[in-house]
Amino acid sequence: MKKLTIAGKASILFVILFLATLWIFPMWRIDLRAPQYPGGLSMKIWINDVKGDVDIINGLNHYIGMKTIHKSDFLEFIYLPAALLIFMGLGIVVLLLNRKIGYYIWTFLFTFIAIFSFYDFYKWEYNYGHNLDPAAPIKVPGMSYQPPLFGYKKLLNFEVLSQPDIAGWFYIGAGVLLVVITFYEWKKNNTK
After folding, report:
1. Contact criterion met (CB below 8 Å) for 1 and 99
2. CATH classification of the domain holding 129
3. Does the residue 1 lie in any domain?
4. How do residues 91-138 score in pLDDT, each as one tens digit?
5. Cα 190 from Cα 110, distance rounded (Å)
6. Which of these, 46, 53, 42, lies nearest to 26 by C-alpha position?
7. Tens digit of pLDDT for each residue in 55-64?
8. Number of compact structural domains in the chain
9. Roughly what angle, to the nearest 10 degrees, separates helices 100-130 and 6-20?
10. pLDDT at 34 (0 to 100)
């Protein structure tokens, strides 16, 4: 059983620190701009909450038949923090066991959590933007209002930008670091 390099061990601590930012900063943001809101509106998604101009956005979305957004509607705010805390705890176990195979499994687990999280977020946005109330005051035939998962989209007179916030960039950085160090550890393993 091959032991981790110093870079591998150090990366575990960095990944845990990067993920800890999820409890300090928002992970995602959706910004909306329109002529009637020149300062824009913003919704910030935290690991366990949704904040920002949510009440105003809910009021606007009522007119096109979108569901209102409430923290209590998201089971993700319970299971994502729990999953990441367990993942961070497993990082300490990987560090103590000091085995490359543990690191590889840990990286795979993070990849699974990340892919599932993005899929879940996409699914939520899809349902939110497509399952509209047929009794809504404003109806545009064939129009859906799904916000972009990542990037820019024009929805009626609103420009919508969806992107990582501070903790989201650290989350992405944790994933990149894990993948880079996994390849580094694997290469070191195969050159000895």
Report:
1. yes
2. 1.20.140
3. no
4. 999 999 999 999 999 999 999 999 999 999 999 888 888 888 888 888
5. 23
6. 46
7. 999 988 888 8
8. 1
9. 30
10. 92
